[in-house]
């Protein structure tokens, strides 16, 4: 394995760790999301939807990283 491949694998490993942490944080955020904190039900639904979308994107990125692809590279 040449230097460029090794560096790419290191970047993938670091990003994978970061994405896994972000997924855990997003799951916790969704778990504690309380509709009573919002004046309007629509605001709560909008925040919930954005959070679920972000979680979905993070999971998709993690899948790409696990297959050895670095997003944006």
Element-by-element helix/strand order: HH
Share in helix: over 70%
Spans of at least 5 consecutive residues whose pLDDT stays below 50 are none
Query: What would you report as the Rg, rounded to the nearest angstrom?
Result: 16 Å
Specify the overall morphology: elongated
Biggest sheet descriptor: none
DSSP strand count: 0
Q: In the residues, how many domains can be counted?
A: 1
The mean pLDDT is 93
Strand percentage, roughly? under 5%
Q: State the distance separating the first and last CA atoms.
A: 18 Å
Class from helix and strand fractions = mainly alpha
Topology summary:
Elements: H1 3-32, H2 41-66
Helix pairs in contact: 1-2
Q: What features would you describe in this structure?
A:
It is built from two helices and no strands. It has helices at residues 3-32, 41-66. Helix 1 runs antiparallel to helix 2 (41-66). With 73 residues, the protein is mainly α. The protein has one domain (3-66).
List keywords for this structure.
single chain, 73 residues, mainly alpha, 2 helices, 77% helix, 0% strand
Concise overview:
The chain has 73 residues and is an all-alpha fold. It has helices at 3-32, 41-66.
């Amino acid at each position: 394995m040449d230097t460029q491949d090794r560096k790419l694998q290191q970047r993938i490993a670091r990003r994978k760790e970061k994405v896994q942490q972000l997924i855990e944080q997003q799951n916790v955020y969704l778990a504690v999301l309380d509709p009573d904190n919002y004046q309007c039900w629509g605001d709560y639904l909008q925040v919930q939807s954005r959070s679920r979308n972000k979680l979905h994107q993070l999971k998709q990125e993690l899948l790409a990283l696990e297959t050895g692809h670095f997003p944006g590279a």
